[in-house]
Amino acid sequence: MGSTVELRSNDEVRESLLQSWLKNAWVYPMQGPEERTLLRLTPGGRLKMRRRIAELEKSLGVSGVELAKEEAAGTLPAEPEKMELAMMVAAYTSERDFIASQGQALGTPAVAVDEVPEVTTEAPSEQG
After folding, report:
1. What is residue 119's predicted lDDT score, i.e. its pLDDT?
2. E strand or H helix at 109
3. Which of 84, 104, 110, 121 has the highest local Cβ count within 10 Å?
4. Among residues 88, 102, 107, 108, which one has the least CA distance to residue 46?
5. Which helix (H) or strand (E) holds 36?
6. What share of the chain is helix, strand, coil (3-state, %, to 5)?
7. CB 39, CB 121: distance < 8 Å
8. So where are the chain's domains?
9. CA neighbor of 71 nearest in space, from 89, 83, 81, 56
């Protein structure tokens, strides 16, 4: 028998990735402005993302920064690995920017985006 491929929208892929990051303790929820719940990277999550970004860039043969820009522009197709890479680059970059804004020193970044793309970092909804 042949296998079936489930087509998913960008929102479904994004939601699935955020759920897995929460489950694997790469991120934790934090109360943000305007009563929004935002996700922050854990220190271990930052390290794991650095490694995963490098793995995905190598296996896909594409720059995570370029994919993050496509994601921000709304032109990135719903391909889970490419979306994961784009979201990781945006999350990693915005987390580093936040830490630096708090006056903490950081080492060399794994990736750097000149302008951090606006990627939804709100905690995923509770789905059973």
Report:
1. 47
2. none
3. 84
4. 88
5. none
6. 50, 10, 40
7. yes
8. 10-101
9. 83
Query: How do residues 33-59 score in pLDDT, each as one tens digit?
Result: 888 888 899 989 989 999 999 999 999
In the chain, the amino acid numbered 110 is: A
Render the burial of 87-120: b for 16+ CB within 10 Å, e for the rest.
bbbbbbbbbbeeeeeeeeeeeeebbebeebbebe
Pair of tokens at residue 54: 């490098």
E strands, 1-128, are 27-31, 37-41
Amino acid at 80: P
What is the Cα–Cα distance from 87 to 89, expressed in whole angstroms?
5
Measured at the CA of 59, the angle between CA 56 and CA 64, to 5 degrees, comes to: 40
Gap between the Cα atoms of 28 and 37, Å rounded: 10
